[in-house]
Design brief:
The protein has helices spanning 4-18, 39-46, 94-98, 148-151, 162-169, 176-181, 191-200, 214-233; strands at residues 23-28, 55-57, 60-64, 70-74, 79-83, 114-120, 127-131, 137-141, 155-156, 186-187, 274-278, 281-285. It is an alpha+beta fold. The protein starts with a helix and ends in a 6-residue tail after the last strand. It binds zinc ion. Residues 266, 268-269, 271, 286, 288-289 line the site of zinc ion.
C-alpha cells in the first residue's frame, strides 16, 4: 500500500507534470466507488482548468485548480499516479508482459484499470491514475467546499512532535504501535514505518502507550520523522503493486531493519527478529534492542 513517503514521492515527481498545465481532455472508466465525484461531473469540472499546485494532506494528493476547485486523489491500496513517460514493465500484467518483445515492454498503454487519464493543451505527456483494486478515491471539490475526509486528518507525520505524541499517549492502554497507527494522532504512519520507527527509538511495539516517558515520545517522534524522510529520499518502498510515478522502483526496502525480517538477525545485536500481532497488524521487533 502506498504510505506517506510513496505519496510524497508521487507528489514530488508528478507535481511538475501537472502544475501550470491546462487540461484538454479527461477520460475515465465507468462510475464506481472509486469516483466520489461522478465521472461526468469530473470531466465537466476539469476540462479547460489549469492545475495550480500539487499538495499533500496525509495520504491525499490535493491539486488546486485555477477556478478555486480542488482535485483530490487517494491512492488506496494499489493506486498509481504517473505520467505517459513511465517505463516500468511492472505496470503491465504478467501475461501481457510475457507476450511482448523486450523493446516493447517500455512505455504504458492505458488499460481497463486506468480510471483517470488527463491530457493537456500542450500535447505533452498525459497523466494517468491506475488502480487495480479500486480502493483509491477521486474527488472534485468546488471552490470553498470542504470534505470530512480531509477535515478529520491529524497532524502530518512529518511534523509530529514529541510533545504531541506524549499528550496523545497519556492514559492510553493501547500499544505504542497502535498509537502511531491512530490517524487522528498523526496522519500517514503506516505499518512498515511504525515498526521501523519503534526499532529506531528502541521501544517495543507492545509497550503500553501510557507508559512512555516524555523522553521516549521525543525519541519516537524523531524516529518517525527520520524514517519517513529517509524513505522519501530513497524514493519510497517498493512493495507489491507500488511503482514510483516515473516507473522506477523505490529503494527503501533495502534499508528496513525489522519489517519483513522475522527470524533474521538484528543488524545491531544479532538477536532474531520477532513477529507478533499488534492492533491486528503484523509487527516486527528486536527482543533485545527494544524495551
Ligand atoms: Zn537487536
Amino acid at each position: 500500500m502506498p504510505e506517506l513517503p510513496e505519496v510524497e514521492v508521487t507528489r514530488q515527481r508528478i507535481g511538475p507534470l501537472l502544475v501550470g498545465r491546462r487540461i484538454r481532455s479527461v477520460a475515465t472508466t465507468r462510475p464506481s466507488y472509486l469516483f466520489l465525484t461522478r465521472p461526468a461531473a469530473l470531466r465537466r469540472g476539469l476540462v479547460g482548468r489549469t492545475v495550480r499546485a500539487l499538495e499533500r494532506r496525509g495520504k491525499y494528493l490535493v491539486a488546486p485548480l485555477d477556478d478555486g476547485a480542488r482535485l483530490v486523489i487517494h491512492l488506496g491500496m494499489t493506486g498509481q499516479l504517473f505520467s505517459g513517460e513511465a517505463t516500468s514493465p511492472r505496470l503491465l500484467s504478467a501475461s501481457a508482459r510475457s507476450t511482448l518483445p523486450p523493446e516493447d515492454q517500455a512505455g504504458f498503454r492505458p488499460d481497463g484499470h486506468t480510471h483517470l487519464r488527463l491530457a493537456f493543451e500542450d500535447r505533452g505527456p498525459e497523466v494517468f491514475l491506475r488502480d487495480v483494486r479500486k480502493f483509491g478515491k477521486v474527488l472534485l471539490l468546488g471552490s470553498g467546499e470542504s470534505h470530512e475526509r480531509l477535515d478529520r486528518l491529524g497532524v502530518d507525520a512529518l511534523e509530529l512532535s514529541g510533545a504531541a505524541l506524549f499528550a496523545a499517549s497519556r492514559g492510553r492502554r493501547a500499544a505504542a504501535k497502535a498509537l502511531l497507527l491512530d490517524q487522528s494522532v498523526a496522519t500517514g504512519i503506516g505499518n512498515i514505518y511504525a515498526d521501523e520507527a519503534l526499532f529506531r527509538a528502541r521501544l517495543r511495539p507492545t509497550r503500553r502507550a501510557g507508559s512512555l516517558s516524555r523522553r521516549d515520545c521525543d525519541a519516537l517522534a524523531e524516529a518517525v520523522r527520520a524514517v519517513l524522510r529517509r524513505s522519501i529520499e530513497t524514493g519510497g518502498s517498493s512493495i507489491r503493486d507500488y511503482v514510483a510515478p516515473d516507473g522506477s522502483d523505490g529503494a527503501y526496502q533495502d534499508e528496513r531493519r525489522v519489517y519483513g525480517r522475522k527470524g533474521a538477525e538484528c543488524l545491531v545485536c544479532g538477536a532474531r527478529i520477532r513477529r507478533v500481532l499488534v492492533a491486528q497488524r503484523s509487527t516486527h521487533y528486536c527482543p533485545t534492542c527494544q524495551r
